[in-house]
Hints:
The chain is α+β, with helices and mostly antiparallel strands. The chain has one domain: Immunoglobulin-like (Sandwich), CATH 2.60.40. 17% of the residues lie in helices and 34% in strands. Strands 2, 4, 5, 6, 8, 9 and 10 form a seven-stranded mixed β-sheet that branches. It has a three-stranded antiparallel β-sheet with strand order 1-3-7, with no helix packed on it. A hairpin with a 5-residue loop joins β8 and β9. It is globular, with a radius of gyration of 15 Å.
Amino acid sequence: MKKLSILGLVLALLALAGQAEAEGLLDRLKNTDFVGGLKSPPGAKVYFINIKDGDTVSNPVLIQFGLKVMGVAPAQIRMENTGHFHLLINKPLIQIDLNRPLEPNDPRIKHFDNGETELLAKFPAGVYKLRIVFGNFNHMTHNPPVMSDEITVKVE
């Protein structure tokens, strides 16, 4: 019961906080025992391989995902220290409930259920905020969450 009360307080604070404050709070919560699903190993990390914050890219856009310390497995395959990638596109972290599976019908969350490690897609011209979130067999974040920093890219 104490975990649920703390979680409620955290979610309320996240709802009131700005994006930067929410991300700072998430950083402090990563070592708690109530966020997400299966445990993630120490040093687990996801990152963008071929793009970085501030890049300008052209269509078709290739986005490659990197992973350290864990392995990739398709959704619904439950194996320790594995999961699959999700790409958040203009979806603020503050709008993600880390205690529920990532939303399957949100067009701002791309699920790579088959264990894909990259995306090649055409994006309308504009500015995009991107973040990789690694999810377990059931689309839940790991505990602590394994996610990249948010980057901003411009598509011409």
